[in-house]
Amino acid sequence: MAFARGKFGVEYNTTRQRDDGSSGLGWVFAVVALVTLASFAWTLAKRFVDERNERDADRPVVAPAPAAPAPVPAASNAPPPVVAGPPAPALPVTLRNRPVKAQNLLMRLEEAERRHDVEMTVTTIEQLRALPGSPVADIDDELARRLGALNVLRLFSDRNGQWVKQVTVKRGDSASRIAAENGSTLASLARLNGGNVDKIVLGSRLYVMDHPRFNLVIHRRTRTADLSLNGKFFRRYDLVGEVRGETGAYEMSSNPRAIWRKVGAEFRPADRAELELLMPAGARVLVAEM
User: Fold this and answer.
1) How far apart are CA 45 and CA 39, in angstroms?
2) How far is CA 120 from the centre of its chain?
3) What's this model's pTM, rounded to 2 decimal places?
């Protein structure tokens, strides 16, 4: 500070007014500086935001990740929670009120049919029909007919080894001789080998049924006939009209028409042809009341 002596000896501060003026100007400059800094900061912030938006616009759009699965997924090994609701639907007609073993076999049969597994289907049907107490008696006819169709398929298309074997044609062999030596029919030999065995070649191999034991039981009351092969059910046929022959045992002859007249049974043409193709002379035919 600067002081000056006055006229009457009093000292005066000669710089006070100047200091007050400079202080006011300082506040003005400070305010201007703050405004300038704020404007500069706002400009920088705006530029940063604009640049970020431009970068984001150039990025590909990515779909959000799927939500996490529920705490207890369907494939979980944990038992599902108990949920209140309507009662479970009743079992299908083929399962209702049957023993557990019959239910299991019927479900296995459905699976075998779905997978087109012929051997599994055949085995399952045979087990179902052999259950004690006949728990599938109401569908036994349907099962028998399905089994019969599969057996014919296994015999002639698959040439199943339990019934069919291969033989080598030797010198002096004929088709009829090969069929007779193996207890079969010429018609089945022809069908097993493509339908034509009139001329067979020495050294070639032929399919032939291996001494089949066919038995036909004709049921007078139900008008059906069951054919068995080697002691097991093979196929079921329907009769046309009533059985006129007497109850008893007969033998297939070399003239099939004669045996049908004798037992008084009439079949549909396709069924009769199949029986004559399968059953050699000497095969048993039984007429039963049931």
Assistant:
1) 10
2) 14
3) 0.67
Torsion of CA 123, 129, 133, 134, to 10 degrees: 140
Q: Where are the alpha helices (DSSP H) in 220-268?
A: 256-263
Count of the separate structural domains present in the chain = 3
Instruction: State the residue range of the domain holding 203.
Output: 163-211
**Whether 154 and 108 share a structural domain:** yes
Identify whether the C-beta of residue 289 lies closer than 8 Å to the C-beta of residue 218. no
Q: Are residues 231 and 274 in the same domain?
A: yes
| Residues found in the chain | 290
Contacts of 96 (CB under 8 A, 6+ apart): 90
* C-alpha–C-alpha distance, residues 118 and 154, integer Å: 8
6-43 pLDDT tens trace: 444 445 455 444 445 555 566 666 666 776 776 666 66
What's the CATH number where 204 sits?
3.10.350.10
Q: What angle do CA 16, 17, 21 make, to 5 degrees?
A: 120
Element (H, E) at 272: helix 269-278
Predicted confidence at residue 166, as pLDDT, reads 97
Among 118, 135, 158, the domain boundary falls at 158
Distance CA 217, CA 227 (A): 6
Mean pLDDT, all residues of the chain: 81
Pick from 237, 241, 224: which is nearest to 279 by CA? Answer: 237
Rounded to the nearest 10°, the torsion over CA 193, 199, 204, 205 is: 30
Predicted confidence at residue 83, as pLDDT, reads 38
Q: What percent of the residues of the chain are helix, what percent strand, and what percent coil, each to the nearest 5?
A: 40, 15, 40
Over residues 72-127, the pLDDT tens digits come to 444 333 333 333 444 545 555 678 889 999 999 999 999 999 999 999 999 999 99
Measured distance CA(243)–CA(262) in Å, rounded: 10
Specify which residues 233 forms β-bridges with: 228
